[in-house]
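Side project, low priority. Logging it here so it doesn't get lost.
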Amino acid sequence: MVKDKIRKPGRKALFEDVGENKEKEEGGRVEGEKVSKGETEEEYRERQLRRLLEAMEAFKNGDLTIRLPKEKYDIYGELADTYNKMAERVGGVTTEMHRVAKIAGTEGKLTERASVPGVAGSWKECVDTLNGLIDAVSKFTLEMGRILDNISRGNLTEKFAIPLTGDFRVMSDTVNKTVDRLNLIGGEVSRVTREVGVEGKLGAQGEVPGVAGAWKELTDNVNTLAANVTDQMRDVAKVSTAIADGDLTQKITVDVKGEIL
C-alpha cells in the first residue's frame, strides 16, 4: 500500500494555519482598524506592507511620531511592534540629545549630560559622543575661566595645564602667550618704577620685545615717565650743586609741567 504523500504547506498555507490559529488562541487583533471580512489575504498583506512603507517614508523624513496598529499576531503584527519600538527608541535618543544640547549649549549648564536607559550599539555611541563633546567643551571652558579669574586677581603664574588638541590647543596656546606677555610687561614696569622711584637709578627704561598696541603704549608711557623724572632730577641736582658751590647763575632748564613747574 502506497502511503499518501504529505504536502508541505507553502508560505500562504503556513500563514493561514499558524497565523489564524495563533490569532484565535491569543484573542485576534489588538488595536487598529478592523480587517474587512471581504478582504482577501493578498489585499491584507499589501495593505500592511503599504502602511509600513508609508511609516518608513515618514521616518526617513524625520517624522518619528507615527505608530503602526497591530491587527493580528502574525508577521505583520511583529513588524508593527518592531517599527514602533524603533521609532520610540530613536525619538527618545533625539529628544534627549536636543534637551542636553539646549541646556549645555544655550543655557551654559556644562554639568548636564545625556542619559537614555537601555540604549546600545550606534544609539549609545551617539549619546556617548554628545557627552564626550560636552566634556571637552566643559573642560576647556572651566580651565579658561580659572585662568582669567587669576589674571583679574593679578596672579600671572597660572596657565593651561590640561592636554588639548586642535582648535582648543590653538586657543590655549594663545592664552598662555598672553599670560607670558603680561608677565613680561608687568615685570618691566615694576623694574623701571622700582629702579627710578625707589633705588634712584635714573635712566632706567623698560624693554619688551615684540610688544604692540596697548601694551606698547603702556611701555612707552612708563619709559616717558622714567625719562622725564630722570631729566628733571638731574637738572635739579645740577642747579643744587651749582648753588652749593656759590654759583647762582644756574637755573632749571628742562621742560616741566604741572606741579613740578
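Brief comment: The longest helix spans residues 166-198.
Revisit when time allows.
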